[in-house]
Amino acid sequence: MSDTLTAAQRVAIARHPQRPNINDYIQALFTDFFEQKGDRLCGEDPAILGGIALYHGRPVTVIGTRKGKDLEENLKCNFGMPNPEGYRKALRLMRQAEKFGRPILTFIDTSGAYPGLEAEARGQGEAIARNLMEMSQLTVPVIALITGEGNSGGALALGVADRVLMLENAVYAILSPEGFASILWKDAARHEEACQLMKLTAPDLLELGVVDSVIPEPQGGAHLAPAITFEQVDQAISRHLGELLKKKPADLAANRYQKFRKMGAAAPQKESQ
Predict the structure, then answer these.
(1) CA distances from 165 to 2, 77, 114, 134 (A)
(2) pTM value?
(3) Are the C-beta atoms of residues 23 and 66 closer than 8 Å to each other?
(4) CA 72, 14, 235 angle in degrees (round to 5)?
């Protein structure tokens, strides 16, 4: 991995409008993709794309946040900020995968869940919380890949996985650097300084144990050589999925639960004599 880029530079690459998105990964890595829409409760949310596909001949469930690459797509997908209907759709597909024993692959690229009044009124917080709870109990393999931005509970709602993979120039954090700077210093202009403090880059998060593996990108970012990126992602998913398929279903759920419970735990302090 290249250590020459600053955290702020990695954020800029992660947000590049031509960076490969969920549609690109589905086209490159899967066959026979069949999209499934709607949460069966309220409506359809284009900010989350999901369905069934074949991965090297094996049926899998694929779910990912969707931003779009131009203004028209951005508006249609709410700039990749899902509403509660999107998270409930994702949960519906996960429950279906659990029923039929299909591995789940999620692709995360979002600045966060949509914080609008209407989304909150329809249960945004509850929808995210329920995903966290039910993902922790799944007995099928779950692999999450952070491809661009992974911010806040909006990202974590698809990120409770047995293996959390991250592209080299992706970022993963509790909120955006601009939001962090606004809260901490009341000055969003200090976002580059915030990037350094937040430990949001792939090397930082690998060292902290938040992610399990970092996937190399071509120099300058995935958007400059997508085919190379797809090959690297394919190799990583194939390897981790092969390992997970060897595990017993009950062990997958138990190990996943403990994996996330241990995150951020500090060693107990000894009492001074």
Answers:
(1) 17, 24, 24, 20
(2) 0.93
(3) yes
(4) 105
Q: Of 33, 26, 30, which Cα lies nearest the Cα of 56?
A: 30
Q: How far apart are CA 16 and CA 264, in angstroms?
A: 30
pLDDT tens track for 79-117: 999 999 999 999 999 999 999 999 999 999 999 999 999
In this structure, the strands spanning 142-151 and 31-35 are: unpaired
Q: CA distances (Å), 74 to each of 46, 66, 205, in order?
A: 10, 9, 28
Model confidence pLDDT, tens digit, residues 128-156: 999 999 999 999 999 999 999 999 999 99
- What would the two tokens of residue 183 be? 């809260």
